[in-house]
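Final paragraph of the annual report: two paired records, presented back to back.
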Amino acid sequence: MNPRTLFADLLPFSPHTDTFYFERQLQRQGFARVAGVDEAGRGPLAGPVVAACVILPADGDFTPYVDSKTLTRRQRERLFELLSTNGARIGVGEASPREIEQVNILQASLLAMKRAMEACGQVPPGGVPDFLLVDGRFEVPVPVGQRTLVKGESKSASIAAASIVAKVTRDRMMADAHALFPQYGFDRHQGYPTKAHREAIRNHGPCPLHRRTFRGVTEFLHHG
């Protein structure tokens, strides 16, 4: 059956309150490993784009997992730790600044999602996801059934969990990057184009973590 028709007779009752609706319906269709996939870091001028793929326990409490953008850093960290200990299967993937430059940010995001799905498949008891719920409009380039959901973090707890993992993982990476390149303030803005970050690029030129094809960086490649 075409994945897009799986919910054809149920869509009028789509999950405004039940954010495990899609997962539950897919499980009833026979999909045993339904994963949510999301990314963090499409907009920054520096650092990788990071994706996560999460399979939530079918019998667990899905209600704590909401869009990472609505949570404080402390709340995201706590939920990240909960996901790490409650039996969820988690895979993380990334695409580097050089890969982003080579294939563009959309394709790099999808590549990171593919890598996250593959990593998730290696988590015991093993087996790649057999269906993906993907945040956004674009499918991941893998031969697995998929459903894309615009604003998926608010519609699927699995996607919300993936958004939390991706965001926390990337924030930690950029905090580590701050130790290497403290002049840019990566620990404060995580590479996003804030006024302070743009000023730092203007004053110091780009570093190896900057995305050289992005406006706000490319103009300063020959700084100094």
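The closing record of the year follows.
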Amino acid sequence: MEKVTSKQMNLIDSFCIKAIGIPGIVLMENAALKVIKNIDLNSYNNFTIVAGVGNNGGDGLAIGRHLSVLGKNVNVFVIGNVRHGSKDFVTNYSILRNMNIHIHHILEREDLKHLQKSVRSSEMVIDAIFGTGLSRNIEGLFERTISIINKSDNFILSVDIPSGLSSDTGEILNTCIKADKTVTFQLLKKGLVENSGEKYAGEIVVEPIGMPKIAIEKGLRNF
């Protein structure tokens, strides 16, 4: 199976959106539905979703919407400055607000108490904090948030890549989600199978999200 770097994946994503005309929100919706497909909905009813404010976080919010529509109990947490959110993150954030789904914000250490309580009452935690573009060490509230998730006994599912894992090298950027399962999109990310990748990713599932062959070939050829 073809393994890609974060830059290659960005090129493919950009070609899909800008050259072919597939809206990013469509790819995000496809990604969310593929994550839902990989959840045993007969076994899990209570979920905590922790989302960043980038496109990975947007995936997480879309997943939360679908779980809520399916009648599941979902607590959604957003960590990061929403005003700096990506366009498609903001779209899904607005949809949840319009559905009157309460969103908890992690802005200071006191907010972590609400996260701890939610994690204790959940059966699955969905990690959608950082995606493949992460290149800096994780510190502060983000580090504490990941620590709370990792200390839980819940099943942990990571969206695209465990938060804190380098998509290119599989190195740990100070700390990292230790997932039971990672649903990654369209192509296998190099970091998932190199260095610490497999140890932190758990079961790896690669799901197509509607990216055409021409976009994939273009992205791989031009790198």
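The longest helix spans residues 6-20. This concludes the annual technical report; the extension proposal builds directly on these records.
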